[in-house]
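ERR on first pass: missing label on line 2. Operator R.T. fixed the label and resubmitted. Corrected input:
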Amino acid sequence: MAGEGSEFRGRRIPEATVVRLPVYQRILSELLAGDQRTVSSEQLAVRARVNAAKVRKDLSHLGSFGTRGTGYDAALLVAQIDRALGADRDWPIAIVGIGNLGRALANSEGFSSHGFRVGALLDADPAVVGTMVGSVRVRHIDDLATVAAEERPAVGVVATPAAVAQEVTDALVSIGVPSILNFASRVLTVPPHVVLRNVDLSIELQVMSFYQARSGPGGVDGPVSSLGVVGRDGTGERRRAGRRPR
Amino acid sequence: MAGEGSEFRGRRIPEATVVRLPVYQRILSELLAGDQRTVSSEQLAVRARVNAAKVRKDLSHLGSFGTRGTGYDAALLVAQIDRALGADRDWPIAIVGIGNLGRALANSEGFSSHGFRVGALLDADPAVVGTMVGSVRVRHIDDLATVAAEERPAVGVVATPAAVAQEVTDALVSIGVPSILNFASRVLTVPPHVVLRNVDLSIELQVMSFYQARSGPGGVDGPVSSLGVVGRDGTGERRRAGRRPR
DNA sequence: TATTGTGAACCTCTTCACAGCT
DNA sequence: AGCTGTGAAGAGGTTCACAATA
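pass 2 clean. output:
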């Protein structure tokens, strides 16, 4: 068990910041595509719908890459964020459960960039096994050990029905997959050394109905603006409708 | 603009709590299905992988429904959570973008329970328009106004490519859809009265590579366990690997 | 005795405000 | 003059610890 203190590079980066880094990165890429070379925290803040001080504090966790009076060099910032997020490495992904969701993930831009690469697709349905999704052939889940030996997946994505999610997770863990991204509506158990994150597509919907239910019939609580992801336990950006005066 | 203070029922419920309510609810439903009538905060906590005090504080926001020495009546609790989340009402959903993701959402359990109902499916692709997904026929996005008049969607789900996400959102807002759930990797702009939440499927992946990158080469920062959703900005449950002594 | 409900302490994240640098 | 980087204050959320109570 590693002690406090020894860190990889620089300070510890708060989780709330980590969740926003991909958003900044996407915005920076767009600015670069439009030939903008430098960017101020204010410009980034407007595009990401956050406070400029938050942008500066977030970026300060990566180091001091800004220039006072000028702003940040967009290309440099992209490189730093990539490095912090590990996007400069190769991350083979194994997706288990090739239904509509698994297929959507396999085809999505986000799963084939930033160092990620769909290395393996697995399913238990004989009608699906053997078919191609993009350039990858779906293998049978029973071949997981073989597939793992070939691809050494860094992330296992669970996109199966909830009923088999734990079983699939156990299999992924047993072949040494160090990170699990769970899309099933079920709380999973993993050993302490495995990184687990959850994305529940319907929880967001229920959170929306909560706010909608309140804002309707005599309610007052406002909407919530959200930045980012769902996973984790959440992190985010909130804003009440009836905002308090300064 | 409503003032501070007047509330729907009871106190204001913290967002972090709202995100966990669906998880408690699912666990309670499972316990009820197994004929368990009462449940302690400790039991709920173990199953949801959270602290028992957090469960009690979360539930206390709904009122005092527990019995000291005994625990909570599971059925009563489900009813209370349903009411808080608005699951006792009807929430027609319009999904725009019937690719793999849209189809996955349309078929998912979470979009056809807790009061939700897939009321309309919309796409711009002539090859998709007219096809059936479940029991709903896909309509052309240009017919949005007509569809909206029939169904009055309470939630608009954006499952389109990022490039058209803002345009689609504007259309949904213009026909009076009060809540938008965005799955596109793009920061959206909506008027203040519209509730917006975001689910970015790839941000979680990037957060995972961040932790993986650190735990590997000389790093120290531990994994993050996550409860819940992805959307929003997250909420969550954190645990460091090298935990500090008490 | 078992377990809730909650004040208080603690911790994390956000925002302000401004010194300091270019 | 403009903008970053950050200390300090503030807000929100979590956890502890225990009095209240069935």
